[in-house]
Amino acid sequence: MSEIREFSTPDTPEFSIRIPDTSKPRVILIGGGFGGAQFVKSLSDRDFQLVMFDRHNYHTFQPLLYQVATAGLEPDSIAAPLRKIFDNKKNFYFRMALVNKIVPEQNCIQTSIGNIRYDILVISTGSRTNYFGNDELIKKCFPLKQVPQALDMRSQILQNMEKAVLTNDLRIQEGLLNYVVVGGGPTGVELAGSIAELKRHIFPKDYPELDLKRMNIYLVEGSPKLLGAMSEKSSKWALKYLQEMGVTVVLNSVVQSYDGETVYLKNGSTIRSKTLIWAAGVKGNVVPGLKEECLQKGSRILVDEFNRATCYENIYAIGDVAAMITEQYKQGYPMLAPVAKQQGERLALNLNDQVRGRNWKPFKYNDRGSMATIGRNKAVADLPGGFFLKGFLAWAAWMLVHVLFLIGFRSKLIVMANWIWSYLTYDKGTRLIIRPYVKPNNPAAEEPLPKEVAAHTPGAEKTAATSAR
Ligand SMILES: Cc1cc2nc3c(=O)[nH]c(=O)nc-3n(C[C@H](O)[C@H](O)[C@H](O)COP(=O)(O)OP(=O)(O)OC[C@H]3O[C@@H](n4cnc5c(N)ncnc54)[C@H](O)[C@@H]3O)c2cc1C
């Protein structure tokens, strides 16, 4: 076996990872999302040296990405700098880098800035958009997993409007003004509702020359109902609200192909649209290097009740990328922020306990319910104990929960101020084309993966968990 040394990148020998040697166990964490951030907060900095890698220098609050994409919030209010979040942590090092490969036989990871050894590895790399093997869609539609993608979508929506005022050709206008959102989970429902609100409250003021009756928003869902992971009541009310807002909901239909101009549905119908938004599924974002038998259909890392990867002693996975199979969750826990946070916390507390000679506790999910917002005063919430909320109450509860979950007082304040302003004025403040979206080379359509990563993440099958969002 060849020796893997910690080294600098060959093309930039003057730069290296620069983590000091330590007598404490070195924990390497990949990913500063919900799971990773909670893990850092809960791990004792007296007992471990903790090194976090993330390809971005910020934590993304994904549940509000759709508001950035539809000009409701600035990106800065839903992203928090990772160095700032953990500036009071000792023995903590952050490195902005892409982790390309895990080499478990040598307790080492390979990154875009060099290699480094670990004593304990925690993988919290989240999930990525699942196109179910339809490569053509990757190039032409808009996913929503990252801030740059949300900004691209915002630019595209506004550029469509700016172009639409320049033509009398109704066929061209149709393509510019029509939106097709694929996937009737919370993300698809929230996006469709939010675009419908732009049409209703914002665009009539901004584009009085346009006949907005010609603007159509379609929500296409493969199953017979919306919000499949939520209660029957939530599904029905979401459908009712969307229809009231003028969204055309197409159930039992899947998108077969898209050429950038026309969306072809499997049932034979077609929709002219320049903007196809893909919210139909996600799959685990697995870094290559782990044994195949350690993975669930190649798309999530199989873990035991302590989040330990099944094939390894010192590798753990938390959050979206981890598949912890239980009696109740046969495909693993749903890909949700509270699951990731709770797993991050439990794992950190177990590692702290281990140092003190205490036994590990298995992970137990505390499910506090789920919510989806459709529009102004329109939301649904399934609460513990079978309680159901809808309308203004659910909408207010949704806002409160999201503000509380946001990281940092500044973000909470800005988001709240934006929402109050929008509520009172029916306005949205961020209708800016700062970075014009350029087709066909959509740089953020899907972050290019290293070859090995791409080979490792085929179109995974849709599971109950992956279809949850
Ligand atoms: C649009 C949208 C809306 C959502 N809404 C909700 C909601 O309302 N409620 C809810 O509970 N959940 C929601 N979710 C799901 C929720 O965001 C995820 O379940 C949660 O983010 C999972 O946390 P995580 O730590 O596993 O991964 P993430 O939060 O995705 O974090 C993964 C991190 O790993 C980094 N990373 C990945 N690969 C690498 C690599 N190779 N090298 C270096 N860094 C890497 C990424 O940059 C990222 O920072 C939503 C998701 C999306 C996309």
Automatic annotation (TrEMBL):
Residues 26-344 form the FAD/NAD(P)-binding domain. It catalyses: a quinone + NADH + H(+) = a quinol + NAD(+). This is NADH:ubiquinone reductase (non-electrogenic). It comes from the Bacteria. Residues 445-469 are annotated as: Disordered. Its EC number is 1.6.5.9. Keywords: FAD, Flavoprotein, Membrane, NAD, Oxidoreductase, Transit peptide, Transmembrane, Transmembrane helix. It comes from uncultured Cytophagales bacterium.
